Amino acid sequence: MQPLTRRTLVRTATGFAPTALLLGSDFPGLEAALAAERRGGGCADRSRVAKLIAKDMVGKHQGRLHGVPSNYNWAKRPRIGKGNKPGRYRALNVWGQIYEDAKGSPARNVRVACKDISAWILSKRTGRWRRVDASKDVFGHNYVEDYSGEARKDADLRYEKDGSVSATLGNGYNFHFSPNHRRVKIDPKDIAGMVTLYSARVIMDDPNGPDERDQARYLAMAGADYWLTKTNGFKAGVSNLDVGMGKARYLDSRWKTVTMSTIGIKKLRRSHPPLCIRGR
Length: 280
Hints:
It is a single chain. This protein has about 280 residues and is mostly beta strands. The chain has helices at about 30-40, 50-55, 265-270; strands at about 25, 80, 90-100, 110-120, 130-135, 140-145, 150-155, 160, 165, 175-180, 185, 195-205, 220-225, 240-245, 250, 255-260. Strands 2, 3, 6, 7, 10, 11, 13, 14 and 15 form a 9-stranded antiparallel β-sheet that branches. Strands 1, 4, 5, 8, 9, 12 and 16 form a 7-stranded mixed β-sheet that branches.
């Protein structure tokens, strides 16, 4: 039996290169928003961005994921799936997932807040990076950790004052989420590279309760799926296939950005999106 991929099991909810980083976007005000984000502080220096993205696709996860069988091909390390070759798939869904550590998490008065989920595609035709999907907030469910039977339940979602959305997880369930809108259309013949990302941190569930954030043992990873269309239903191994899955990193009380990419460090050094990578 072939190792199961996450996406054969899951039905989803809906050095800075100065010349290569010419941008286009379907999202108005992109450059102004990025500039404001950097002015707010907390972003890694531009000279480090390529290396930080590349690091999320090499080596092992920072920890083992609770409830994920060791024979799953993403259980121990990041990996590329369809990569830059979507074939007949013409839509994209960027996602994130957060797990307890394999040994559990002793913290109880905690939640995980997530924000700024997005996907960037490098055009073959123009050589430009374009942000093709973006959402300040997210929407998701608690899935059974091994995704068996597609079992899921409604997540305890809470909108935070900073625009993020927080949720709880554990007791055999992860938190799996996407942008708070439908999939986006892509041109399957015009993908030379892709980067997806979001930021997450541990916050207090009850602000009047004990502060147990330093006891939380949660791992976050980023990824994306290709879908046949923007609206097709789920059929395992047919309706959607994953683009790739990034390295799982431990979260703490600071914002941390996790990424997935389909190109290596050499190409990223020549050209990468102008990202704000936090906490790294």
